[in-house]
Structures are given as C-alpha cells and as structure tokens.
Specification:
Layout: E1 9-13, E2 22-27, E3 30-37, E4 40-45, E5 60-61, E6 64-66, E7 73-75, E8 92-93, E9 95-98, E10 101-104
Antiparallel strand pairs: 1-10, 2-3, 3-4, 4-8, 5-6, 6-7, 9-10
Organism: Arenimonas maotaiensis
Keywords: 2Fe-2S, Iron, Iron-sulfur, Metal-binding
Protein name: Benzene 1,2-dioxygenase ferredoxin
Length: about 110
Amino acid sequence: MSAPLDGWQAVCRTDELLPGEHAVCFDGDTAILVCNVDGELYALEDKCTHQDFELSAAPLQGAEIECVLHGARFDVRTGQALCAPAYAPVPKFPVRVEDGVIYTRDDR
C-alpha cells in the first residue's frame, strides 16, 4: 500500500473490496466499516446504535446491512436506521481513494 495520508486510515486496496463486500479498519478506538455498494464506497461506524454490536458480522445486502443481534437494519449510504429496534442513525465518515488505496477517518 502507498504511504498513509495525514489523519486518514488505510483500509485496503480498491481491488480488494469488490461490490457487495465490506472491510473494517480502526481509527483509534473507533471501528469503521467501509462498504462497496455497486462501486461506490461508504463508511460508517461498525456499531449498531441499538446495542453496540458490530455491523460487520453481517453480509451487505445491496445498500443495507442488518445487525445479526436483533435485526436492526441500516442504509450504509446514509447511516439511517431503517427499522426497529434501532432508531438512531449510525455515524458516517468520509472515504477517500488515493493511488488505488481506500482511506477513511473518524472526523467527529
């Protein structure tokens, strides 16, 4: 992988994250889930807002991911909760591609 960008965390190479797949990286203590939805990249916190369970335990289904613990679903493009038991959105993060490497960061 190329040299890291200041403040950005390398996730993986673009050819390692195919459409319909997701990968996780860490920015400090924050686990960030990066999803490839039809070639577009989205990043959100890897934590269900219902009970803090990792969303990455489930497969990506189109632009949605469902928490395997209690079935809350989220739109990975927006972070919005789509059904109970979650009501709060998942925080979203920026994604950047540089020299074939995907980067993200916790910009809160």
